[in-house]
Amino acid sequence: PYVETWNSPSAMASARSATGNKYFTLAFVISGGGCNATFNGNTSIADAGWSSAINSLRAAGGDVIASFGGASGTELGQACGDVGSLENQYKYVIDTLNLTRVDFDIEGAPVADAASIDRRNTALAALQQQYAAAGKTLAVDYTLAVDPTGLPQDQINLLNNAKSHNLNVNLVNIMTMDFGDGQNAL
Prior knowledge:
Layout: E1 3-5, H1 9-19, E2 23-31, E3 37-39, E4 43-44, H2 48-59, E5 63-69, H3 76-79, H4 83-97, E6 101-105, H5 114-133, E7 139-145, H6 153-164, E8 169-175
């Protein structure tokens, strides 16, 4: 079970100390302007504070997963205009943070953007194949909105596109907080 954190490396260290939790989701990786992956649009993926906090966490037996997207900012699948540049940004984040698992929180307009969905799934499928050929695992998760009747059509379309590209989706996290008054908040 991963706990989502987005504040700072010190907040993650404090949470680990206070709770004993050793598994954290780093949310969110989005565009920092153009096709440029950053934490929350303003912090370098190679930030020394985050690198130190992640290394400390791993030394204590924990790990992190990076979540791309979210409700705010510009999602990389939309910011990067072609598969190659998007793949390079994902690879940069994965390799810089030494990740074996990534999450994609696709909500709002990006979940209905067929072009960005296709770019994202094409890039991720290629990366899964590259890492597998090198003997490494890359698990891909999707975090998607749901309503009381199940996944809406846009989310199903996203997953069908992933399947069409032979992307192995490890799991789908559902955003049940969108139930609220029975209306999908997205």
